[in-house]
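Could you join me in thinking about how sequence relates to backbone shape in a protein? Would you write everything just below, so we can both look at the same thing?
***
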Amino acid sequence: MVYALFCDETNLNQNDQVKFFIYGGVFFPVEILPEMHQRVENIRRDAGYRPTDIFKFNVAERPQHISPETATEAKRRVLNLCADLNVRFIAYVVHHEIAAQQGQERTVSWAADHVIRRFHDFLERENSYGIVVTDKLPFKNNWQYLARKFQEGLKYHNGTVHRLDRITLFASTVIGASHASSVIDIVLGSFRYCVNAPPDSQPAREILPQVVRLMWCEEHPNGTRNARERGLILRPVKVRNPDHKRDYDMLLDKLRHLLISQSIR
């Protein structure tokens, strides 16, 4: 079976409400792409989106003739179709103040490396192959980055190299060129909204369980699910700065509070 991973970034710029940079991807068997396409087509039609209208998570970017309530319902339907089709989600999260020490290109490329590596781990487990499709990477050498992943794989500080021999294609796309791009934008945007929302946010409380059920998890015999180091990647592994560690702890506490569950540990 061949799987496709669609990737994008969010929260690229820090502000008072945005402490974390997030990079994410959704992956699924290529064979379900026609059904995903048709179901998103149906959602767009029912909501009144025109063929040239962009369908994204950000309510401010909706077409003017689509009400906020209609756009919200359409996004909810996308999350549901992802669950129906067993689409899986991976999110990489790093504190902006830590990421700022590396610069934007390295921050984004490292984040993409982690998400792609987890996808490759999945492919190895499933004895399958895959393709990676990124949104345009926000740095000058974006095409070279994709070529290096295909030609060389992942290079680590200690000199080791991990070849991505189960990924047969690296490519880039833009929103509006595929309904799968809308899917990753909506899933990632939903997670980003929950990360930034206050702990008592009712919309976030409703959205987060829909997103968490998509995260690639380790399933335990007792029924619990662990997303850490699979669908949820927090970096750095060790947070030494007490202020930064407090922000990470508050983030996890907030997600647990919103979820009221043990799905994220």
User: Anything to note?
Assistant: Confidence is low (pLDDT under 50) at residues 261-265. The radius of gyration is 18 Å.
